[in-house]
User: Fold FAD-binding domain-containing protein from Micromonospora sicca.
Amino acid sequence: MRDAVDGSDLTSLDLRDLERKYGFPYLVIHRSDLHGLFLEACREAGVELLTEQRGAAYSQEGDKATATTKAGTLHEGSVVIAADGLHSVARKLFVDDQPSPRPTSPAAAPCRSRR
Assistant:
């Protein structure tokens, strides 16, 4: 990881064994780039994208996934991509932790390059 201001190395990790151990390489991607990939894939697949939906619950039974909004609307599909942010409803299904927002310095901000 590099400092966003001066580019100096802040820390490093040895990630060589992760692909062998888990079957996939380690990947770092900026959140907005990941969202862009999701958006492009959804458009290509003809998926209807709904904004301003607040997740309240998720379930999976066989090949059917359901997302329920706080307004009580049910959305069904074959998969739910729960990219619902810091206070994720979906996160609680997988991880029993309570992440809390922390202020960061400019040095902690990720660097991105435009192509």
Q: What stands out?
A: The chain has two domains: 1-49, 51-95. Residues 1-49 form one domain. DSSP finds three helices and three strands in the chain.
